[in-house]
Design brief:
single chain, Arc Repressor Mutant, subunit A, 2 domains, three-stranded antiparallel beta sheet, 9 strands
């Protein structure tokens, strides 16, 4: 078997920034691994790329090992290649963003990794350059959500318009006009109203909606202006150390 000569081995890892939404706040799924560097700190879920895997397959495996679920929304973010990023060995990390329904899958989390959901507004200390990965993933999510309906991946099978609005407001740290937001979302045809209400917030209640998957897929790559561009802050704060 031929091999490249005079080349130094470089390990490749896949780290996944797993976002969830609990109905009010964004959360990040973190783990503590017994053999990891900086043991007192928390880590993104990750693993090394295996010889028979693509990067996409490795990311899916990592998320499955942590949550027990498949077919999760995953997007490759970028590579982190500082030669000194890992004190143990030369490791190149390819980071991915994952969006999951926190309420649907919270009971399937693998306890082996001491996984825990943390509110994005109050994250613990993270290992290595994982804080930088989270900030970059958050910026990418804000960019994607302005163009595509990716945030629906964070919602349960049935949801209310107020929940959807809170989801968008929380991502951009803004207040959105209720009537305009509802009108724009309903006009896309990607959601359908159900004949039942959520009355946990008021006696009148709010109608539940569900995603029309066919329309969602067909319109995924279209610009969906749920939020006017002039309402999105140009410099949205990132998560500080």
């Amino acid at each position: 078997m031929l091999k490249y000569s005079n080349q130094t081995r470089v390990l490749v890892s896949v780290d996944c920034v797993v976002f969830g939404f609990d109905g009010e706040d964004y959360r990040l799924l973190l783990v503590q691994k017994g053999g990891a560097v900086e043991k007192e700190k928390w880590s993104l879920m990750g693993g090394f790329l295996q010889p028979d895997e693509s990067l996409e397959q490795a990311a899916s495996r990592v998320v499955f090992e942590l949550t027990g679920i498949k077919d999760v929304y995953l997007e490759q973010l970028c590579g982190f290649s500082n030669p000194n990023r890992d004190p143990i060995e030369r490791v190149l990390s390819i980071t991915h963003v994952a969006l999951i329904d926190i309420k649907k899958y919270e009971d399937q989390i693998n306890e082996e990794y001491m996984a825990k959901w943390f509110p994005m507004k109050n994250l613990p200390a993270l290992v290595l350059d994982h804080r930088e990965m989270v900030n970059m993933a958050l910026k990418k999510l804000r960019y994607n959500a302005a163009l595509h309906p990716v945030l629906f991946e964070l919602l349960p099978e049935k949801f209310t318009l107020p929940q959807l609005q809170i989801l968008y407001e929380g991502l951009y740290n803004i207040n959105i006009d209720k009537r305009n937001f509802s009108r724009k979302v309903l006009s896309t045809g990607i959601i359908k109203r159900l004949n039942e209400k959520d009355k946990s917030k008021s006696k009148k209640g709010a109608f539940y909606y569900k995603l029309v998957k066919r329309n969602y897929k067909e319109k995924f790559n279209r610009v969906l202006n749920f939020i006017p561009k002039n309402e999105i802050p140009k410099n949205i704060p990132i998560i500080s150390n």
